[in-house]
Amino acid sequence: MKRFQSILAAALAGCLLMAFTACSSGNNGGTATNPPTGVNTSEASETKKDSITAKLEAIAEGEEGQALISSMENASNDTATGSLEVEGNTLVVICTYQIDIPEETMDAVCDALDSGLESMESTFQPLVSQLSDQLGDEVKIRVEYHTMDGDMLSSYTYTAD
User: Fold this and answer.
1) pLDDT(54) > 50
2) With helix as H, strand as E and coil as C, how does 36-64 read?
3) String of b and e for 15-29 (b: at least 16 CB within 10 Å)?
4) For the purposes of burial, counting CB atoms within 10 Å of the CB of 139, is it exposed (0-12), middle (13-18) or buried (19 or more)?
């Protein structure tokens, strides 16, 4: 079971890397960095946050996001389902196991997932940096693992630095 968790975690990292590499070829366009005259900075900050959220939602709902979910589910041999959500400037990758995890192995599974997610920091940092550069603001990626009952098994947030 522990080996399976590690393999699934590695597959998730590979899927994420491939999915978002496709995003890098897009054009950032000319995004204004200064708020227009007459707009207070808090409004401009909210508008920028909403813009980043909208861009992340487009990625999550678009072809790249759906390809990521399909790859993740295929890699799990149908033992997990995936979804993408957006919370502000954070893209949340959710993996939900569709198998019953015995209570006596729950701690070991959680420890293996935590270790796997932490060990992938160097894989995700360049990805987050690339996505942040593309969207013009700090972006984070959080990977969450859940039981089929919705209980959190493990979670890790990756940042550019």
Assistant:
1) yes
2) CCCCCHHHHHHHHHHHHHHHHHHHHHCHH
3) bbbebbeebeeeeee
4) buried
Predicted local confidence at residue 139, as pLDDT: 95
Total number of residues shown for the chain: 161
Inter-CA distances, 134 with 38, 39, 89, 138, 152, Å: 28, 25, 13, 10, 31
CA torsion sign for 122, 107, 1, 149 is negative
Q: Which amino acid is residue 103, in one-letter code?
A: E
- Mean pLDDT across 52-62: 92
Residue 26 is predicted with a pLDDT of 40
146, 95 Cβ separation under 8 angstroms: yes
Report the pLDDT value the prediction gives residue 11, as an integer from 0 to 100: 44
What integer is the mean pLDDT of 90-110? 93
Token representation of residue 37: 């005259």
* Helix pair 63-75, 41-61: axis angle to 10 deg: 50
For residue 38, CA distances in Å to 31, 43, 103 come to 18, 10, 58
Q: How many CA atoms lie within 13 A of 115 on its CB side?
A: 11
